[in-house]
Amino acid sequence: MFSIAYRMLGSVAEAEDVVQEAFLRMHRSTQETGEVDNLDAYATTVTTRIAIDTLRSARHRREQYVGPWLPEPILVSDEDPAHRLELDETVSTAFLVLLESLTPVERAVFVLREVLGYDYDDIAPIVDKSATNCRQIFTRARKRIADGTPRFDPSRERRDQLASQFVAALSANDISGLERLLADDVVFVADGGGRAPAIQKPMLGAVAVARFLLGLMRQGGRLGVRLELSDANGQPAMLTRGADGALLGVIALDVDGGRIVRMHNVLNPDKLGHLGEVGDLFALPAER
């Protein structure tokens, strides 16, 4: 249930709320009508319908969002059993960002068909459409995101190795080494949501991104900020931590062709609270 809700919403907090509401509805319904013939199908239906309604109401908030919107990260080290889901490419930050271009119903059909492998006949009653209509919706949704669907190097070992090299180059202030690890058209996106200092537009190009990151490293070094290798949404990532160990940000790395092609930096503290203690980036210089 969480797996469906998270892929639909890209938000851990909203997905948790959806699952809780779904459990309550299922409990009330079974109290009234008795046992359910197919519990999995019933849970999927209730969860998906609530997620669709939640996403519709969330769209307006995201339109008013300050700067780029990115999904809330899930770390492989997250031990909360409520957050367990298969961390594959369909929960990568890049993929979830692409799904934002779909309508709530399109997103539901796409997730149920592409990710969970549901037949159109099974999807139809969930989204209150015909099977034929669901097939058309899926085809339209897949075409809409086809050009931007992320490709990842097949070897996880190679991706982790590149992430380690990237952190080493940053720590050594090696700009030429950084540029070799970045794709020429690399994209760096930051999500501060007005709650943390962040660039308001995506940054493009290896030279610009490398210089920007080294500038951040020099400033962060003076404030006791450090980087920690991790895994976010099934992809290599870097955690930014303050001198006290509090989490300041999560940078997910997308690797293709032996180079980093996208970097998504979640800085909004509202999106990091489920990962532990969160620091205040605005307060760091003053504290120092």
From TrEMBL:
Keywords recorded for this protein, A-Z: Sigma factor, Transcription, Transcription regulation
All copies of domain RNA polymerase sigma factor 70 region 4 type, residue ranges: 94-145
GO biological process, one term: DNA-templated transcription initiation
Record text on subunit structure and interactions: Interacts transiently with the RNA polymerase catalytic core formed by RpoA, RpoB, RpoC and RpoZ (2 alpha, 1 beta, 1 beta' and 1 omega subunit) to form the RNA polymerase holoenzyme that can initiate transcription.
Stated family: Belongs to the sigma-70 factor family. ECF subfamily.
PANTHER family to which the protein is assigned, alphabetical: ECF RNA POLYMERASE SIGMA FACTOR SIGJ, SIGMA 19 FACTOR
Listed name of the protein: RNA polymerase subunit sigma-24
UniProt organism field: Nocardioides luteus
